[in-house]
Amino acid sequence: MKIRNKIALIYTTITATLFLTVFISIFYFANQYKEKEFYQRLRERANIAAQTLLEEDEVNASIYNEIRDKHLQALPDERELIIPVEELNVKNNLDYATDLSPEFIDEILRNGYAESENIDFYSVGIFYDDNQGDFIVVISATDKYGAAKLDNLNKTMFVAFLASLGVIFIVGIYYSHQVLKPISTITKEVNNIRASNLHLRLPAVGKKDELVELAITFNNMLDRLETSFEIQSNFVSNASHELKNPLTVILGEAEVALKKERSSMEYVQALSTIEKEAQRLDYLVDSLLRMAQTEYDNKGLIIEEIRIDELVIDVKEDAIKHFPNNKISLDLDGLPEEEEQIIIQGNRSLIRMVLSNIIGNACKFSENKEVKIKLSATQRDISIVITDQGVGIPDNELKNIYEPFFRASNVRSFKGFGIGLPMAQKIIRIHGGQLVVHSTEGIGTIATITLPNARQAVSIAR
Predict the structure, then answer these.
(1) Partner residues linked to 343 by β-bridges
(2) Is the residue at 63 inside a domain?
(3) Would you say 127 and 79 are in contact if contact means Cβ atoms under 8 Å apart?
(4) Burial letters for 392-431: b for 16+ Cβ neighbours within 10 Å, e otherwise?
(5) Pairing of strands 300-301, 304-307
(6) Does residue 134 sit within a domain?
(7) Residue 201 domain flag
(8) Which one of 15, 70, 248, 267 is most buried, counting C-beta atoms within 10 A?
(9) For the chain, how big is the Rg over CA atoms in Å?
(10) Per residue in 114-173, pLDDT tens?
(11) Considering only CA atoms, which of 15, 26, 6 is closest in space to residue 166?
(12) How far apart are CA 136 and CA 124, in angstroms?
């Protein structure tokens, strides 16, 4: 059975139970009111009967009979019974009323009033004190009209109950369809996502309900998948492209040096070039291996505590080796004395890749101008601000920097390798942080990375 049908069935059952409870309550109170009203009518008739039959010596009985016939409608199976108390022997003689129980007669004598019911036949008895003596007056009748009204009410409620079941089920089907419609949309969107379009995301807008949380969870999963795919893709492309250039130089220098005898100085120059390119090759291989060796365990990404200042210092040292002519300054004055405020929870390899990419780009595009790295921390966040004096990014292209494979028009002449800003943004977002880039063409770029510290206990999707 589909979930929508289950929801409709449960909704119908609950609502039908509620309706049934209401209808039973209506029947119960209607029956109570019917009996109370009929007993009241019988009591009034008992009083009138007593006055009509027992006060003939004081008032004209014909007047009471006229009032009775004119204003009181005869009841079905109506019976009147007047019993002198002095002639009544409750224990031995009930010839006056063989269908009246001793308890009923006894209650009249004790309380002055009694009621009795036998199926639909009702009796009311009163004690009447007259100048001729004491009497018991009993009026009995069948409440056919009340029973008919109650029967009509039962039929009406039964029809209404059956009709409401149909309406409720239809409403339940419609309501369940509306409730599950976003899930159907999510299913359709997820089925459209393939390895070739992992950049697509589910819409996660509207009220912060469970469905929005489900869409956000799917999007986080897609972020991790896309990041993994891009890491593998970049590894292959970088391995083929970046390793080719230094290998070409090394092979070219060796081939030229070996073609004929050279002077000692020429051999030294050739070997120096080979050494320089070999160092570059070593750095590239090390960088690519770090990209490929994103740490996973059997639960997913390895999440550990990372002291961010130590990681930034390591990345800075690597950048100095790769860009020896660039000046990189590190400002740690904004860091607090409390160590816990500069520790984050995350995957070391991924965070290192982000820092390596952004600091490397700053060095590359600044053309040997100073690159500044500033660390600061608050009670909640850690900020890493990387400022360069490079070529900058045109204003009309700044909005596109997080798109996959986008390169600004003024950096096409620069060779590059790394994971790029789109992947850097995804990695930072997985860690609950933000990456914001401000840039002015011809002046430089400021990249600000903000990450929550370990105290915030941010849940990182693994």
Answers:
(1) 307
(2) yes
(3) no
(4) bbeeebbeebbeeeeebebbeeeeebbbbbbbbbbbbbbb
(5) unpaired
(6) yes
(7) no
(8) 15
(9) 48
(10) 998 887 788 999 988 877 778 888 888 888 888 888 899 999 999 999 998 889 888 888
(11) 15
(12) 10
Q: Which of 148, 164, 184 is the last residue of a domain?
A: 148
- Give pLDDT, residue 293: 54
User: Final residue of a domain: which of 114, 148, 182?
Assistant: 148
Cα dihedral sign, 96-98-101-102: positive
- The pLDDT of residue 339 is above 90: no
Cα-Cα end-to-end distance for the chain? 34
In a domain, residue 270? The reply is no
Structural domain count, the chain: 2
Chain-centroid distance, C-alpha 250 = 60
Over range 63-69, report the average pLDDT. Answer: 60
> What DSSP letter does each residue of 78-139 carry, written as one string?
-EEEEEEGGG-BTTTB-TT-TTS-HHHHHHHHHHSEEEEEETTEEEEEEEEEETTEEEEEEE
CATH number of the CATH domain containing 387: 3.30.565.10
Q: Is the pLDDT confidence value at 202 over 60?
A: yes
CATH number of domain containing 78: 3.30.450
With a CB cutoff of 8 Å and minimum separation 6, the contacts of 395 are 440, 441
pLDDT category at 90 given cuts 50, 70, 90 is very low
CB 457 within 8 A of CB 343: no
Strands 328-334 and 371-377: parallel
90-98: average pLDDT: 45
From CA 16, how far away is CA 459, in angstroms rounded? 44
Q: Quick check: 383 pLDDT over 90?
A: yes
Q: Global pTM?
A: 0.47
The label of the residue with tokens 């790769």 reads 322
Nearest Cα residue to 312 out of 278, 362, 277: 362
Residue 27 belongs to domain spanning: 3-148
| The dihedral sign for the CA sequence 424, 429, 435, 436 | positive
Separation CA 177–CA 174 (nearest Å): 5
Task: Using the predicted structure, report yes or no on whether residue 254 has a pLDDT greater than 70.
Answer: yes
Question: Which tokens is 2 given?
Answer: 């589909």
CA 42 distance to own-chain centroid: 62
Strand 133-142 with 300-301, pairing: unpaired
For residue 462, the 8-state DSSP code is -
Helices (H) and strands (E) in the chain, counts: 10, 13
CB 448 within 8 A of CB 435: yes
Q: What are phi and psi of 332, to 5 degrees?
A: -110, 10
Q: Which amino acid is present at 210?
A: E
Fill in the amino acid letter for 281: L
The identity of residue 132, as a single letter, is: Q
